[in-house]
Write a structure and sequence with these properties.
Strand content: 5-15%
Helix content: 55-70%
């Protein structure tokens, strides 16, 4: 709205009970020039005195940072929640329909797609797509690969302890090397360069899928040399169709998003 001095009051909601109010006017070049800053309640009633332009700029930066931080916390909370929830779905589908071998491959592939989405799309929609793919991939990957380790030896065999030790050592080594590689390619001082860290993660996941495809039948076997994690014999054939799997995962991703 305009006041008697031809100044314009502009409100900016920062997601709290208060609203930042900027007072601006048209300069000689007919461009909007901010000349002051104040506070207002949610109904737009001006409160407090008008400050100088330096405080206005500081207030804009602070309000923007607070809004982005609040949104980031919300997205992170939902993402972490799905990381713990999706393994229930992934384990159920693997036991009843897919088998652990295919579930692990699908999970790694979905996580690779999630990393590539974060590499390619630099907006909030792209971020959400990438995180949904990562969460779904984690659901297929995490519970089933741990279960396969437990099936390598018969019950009561002490070698299973060594197997899990080696398994978790590999996870810890990867957890140590990954941040180093991603930090070297992504932490350059320019936020937009973090995309290269996601690309590195996606390439690593693709390599893991290839390694699993080449060596699963040779090394992931029980004491009787039976390959572990294969598709259950009574699984419906419709669940094994890759097109149906892609369509189902796409619908689930859209629902979650």
């Amino acid at each position: 709205m305009k006041n008697p001095n031809s100044e314009i009051v502009v409100g900016l909601d920062i997601g709290t009970t208060k609203i930042c109010v900027f007072v601006a006017k048209l300069n000689e070049n007919k461009k909007l020039e901010i000349i002051g800053f104040g506070k207002a309640e949610s109904h737009g009633v001006l409160r407090g005195e008008v400050f100088n332009i330096d405080k206005t700029c500081d207030a804009i930066k602070l309000a923007t940072a607070q809004a982005q931080e609040q949104s980031g916390y919300q997205i992170q909370s939902v993402y972490v929640g799905f990381l713990y929830a999706t393994p229930i779905l992934g384990g159920y589908l693997a036991d009843r329909y897919l088998g652990k071998r295919k579930a692990i491959a699908y999970g790694a592939f979905l996580m690779a797609l999630g990393q590539f989405a974060l590499f390619l799309f630099h907006h909030q929609t792209g971020l959400l797509i990438g995180l949904v793919l990562l969460a779904l991939g984690n659901g297929f990957f995490k519970p089933n690969i741990s279960a396969l380790v437990g099936q390598l030896y018969p019950k009561g065999d002490r070698r299973i302890d060594s197997a899990y030790t080696i398994f978790y050592m590999g996870i810890n080594v990867g957890g140590a090397i990954g941040p180093i590689i991603c930090g070297l390619v992504g932490d350059t001082g320019h936020p937009e360069d973090f995309k290269w860290a996601f690309l590195a993660g996606g390439i690593a996941m693709v390599i893991s899928v290839i390694v699993q495809y080449l060596y699963h039948r040779k090394y992931v076997v029980d004491p009787n040399q039976k390959v572990l994690g294969m598709t259950p014999e009574n699984a419906p054939s419709s669940w094994l169709n890759p097109i149906n799997m892609v369509m189902g995962l796409t619908a689930l991703s859209a629902l979650i998003s």
